[in-house]
Design brief:
Length: about 140
């Protein structure tokens, strides 16, 4: 995930959470989707973002340490990420742990059907364009 994507997701969450503070209004023409209220998909997206940011922090610290190594040592270390010396090994395991948790949550988000317009908008903005399972959930 790029920094630009991360920033856009954060801005999206701030706007979506601000919109979710409004009162829920029933919208029969939209079926189960309502205007305003709180949608659990927004909380899932916020948590996925939090986990991704944690993974990025550990990954960034790891890469700072790797870049401080001479080229030949760095090349060897990159070839054996699963058995890095400390503290690099701990940083790698933590980054993988957080990224894996974020990926698991991303699968849950993809399978979640939004219940509000804010949730639908958040889900559409969160996902990559053309990701049909998510788009199908928003439209359904």
């Amino acid at each position: 995930m790029t920094t630009n994507t991360t920033i856009n997701r954060r801005n999206l969450l701030h706007r979506a959470l601000a919109g979710a503070a409004g009162a829920a209004i029933s919208a029969p023409a939209l079926g189960a989707i309502t205007i305003g209220g709180f949608d659990p998909v927004i909380a899932l997206i916020a948590e996925e973002e939090r986990l991704t940011v944690l993974g990025e922090r550990y990954d960034g610290q790891l890469h700072e340490l790797l870049l401080a190594q001479p080229d030949d040592v760095r090349t060897e270390l990159y070839s054996r990420l699963d058995s890095l010396p400390e503290p690099m090994g701990s940083l790698y395991r933590e980054s993988v742990r957080w990224f894996d948790a974020a990926n698991e949550l991303a699968f849950r988000i993809e399978a979640t059907k939004p219940i509000t317009v804010d949730g639908a908008a958040a889900l559409l903005k969160w996902t990559a364009a053309g990701d049909s399972p998510v788009v199908d959930n928003v439209i359904a």
